[in-house]
Amino acid sequence: MINNPSDTPDGPVNTAVVANTATATYNSQIVNLRTTKTALQTEVDHLTNIIKDLTTKYEEQVEITQTLETNWNTHKDDIDKVYLTIVDLQTKVQGVDSQIDTVKQIYNARVREVQATITGGPTAAYSIRVDNTNQAEDLTTSLQEVKTHYEVLATKSREEAFAQVQPQIQEMAVTVQAGPQAIIQAKEQIHVFKLQIDSVHREIDRLHRKNTEVETQITETESIVKQQNDDWTYKINNFRLQLETIKKQITQYSRDYQDLLASKMALDIEIAVYKNLLDSEETRYVPKAHISPQPI
Fold first, then answer.
1. What range does the domain containing 40 cover?
2. Would you say 242 and 47 are in contact if contact means Cβ atoms under 8 Å apart?
3. CATH number of the CATH domain containing 78
4. Would you say residue 241 lies in a domain?
């Protein structure tokens, strides 16, 4: 019995189609795996760049915090110096007030002394002695003598009192002239000190406001840095987990790729064996198909 030649190509054709289909499928999977690997590598590079950017921002925030702390220490030293200046100025003002009180006391004592001298001098000098032995003399003569004696005594008392008081008056005049001038100078000095104190107080208020602003900035910066640190820590941990997952996926894909290559090689070997078998079968059956039957 001879096989139909039309049936012989069916076997090889179907096997080749199956082999080509399997090979195309494996090649497509290999291409997809390579594409996935490239995409994963790109994502890993992107995440690495993000981590570098976050690290740079963190270092910048740390530098800002250190700068703010340095400014705070500088302002604190300035406040201490201003406070010491205020204490020094207050001490000087107290010394000037003491000098003013002393000058006032000296001035008042001098005035009382002059007033006492002027008031008590003529009274001490006006002592009239009356001789009873002269009562018989003429009353007019006695009165004239008494008047003359009184005038002489009054003149002498005035001269003596003026001579005694004149140095004190001159000294007091100098003191009185120097007193208001010293008071004016002291008032001017106090006014200058008050202006300096007011200026220092304004500077202290400005430094306090600046200090408050710096403290607020430090608090806000610390809060922002803490929040960013928490966010960055959370993101970095997530990125690390994602990197571990990606590495595991890449490892799995590599294993799958190796398995696919091994399967492809096995299929290629099997296809080659089947092809050799089919070729040998075709070689064995084709010569018999050309033998014609002998007549009986």
1. 10-289
2. yes
3. 1.10.287.2610
4. yes
Task: Specify the pTM.
Answer: 0.29
In the structure, what pLDDT confidence band is assigned to residue 89 with cuts at 50, 70 and 90? confident
pLDDT score, position 69: 76
Question: Hey, what are 53's tokens?
Answer: 């950017």
Q: Rounded to the nearest 5 degrees, what angle is found at the Cα of 201, between the Cα atoms of 199 and 203?
A: 70
Task: Count each helix (H run) and each strand (E run) in the chain, helices first.
Answer: 2, 0
Q: What's the CA angle centered on 19, arms 13 and 25, to 5 degrees?
A: 135
- The CA distances from residue 21 to 9, 17, 236, 273, in Å, are 18, 6, 45, 18
Instruction: Look at residue 211 and tell me if it is in a domain.
Output: yes
The rounded distance, in Å, linking the Cα atoms of 218 and 199 is 28
Domain membership flag for residue 2? no
Measure CA of the first residue to CA of the last residue in the chain; give whole Å. 17
Number of domains the chain contains? 1
- Using CB atoms within 10 A of its CB, is residue 13 exposed (0-12), middle (13-18) or buried (19+)? exposed
Residue found under tokens 């002393």: 102
Residue 4 lies in a domain: no
User: Which two tokens mark 20?
Assistant: 């080509």
Is the Cβ–Cβ distance between 75 and 210 less than 8 Å?
A: yes
CA-to-CA distance for 128 and 150, rounded, in angstroms?
A: 8
Q: Which single residue is written with the structure tokens 């406070």?
A: 83
pLDDT of 290: 47
Mean pLDDT across 208-216: 72
Taking the C-alpha atoms of residue 68 and residue 214, their distance in angstroms, rounded to an integer, is 7
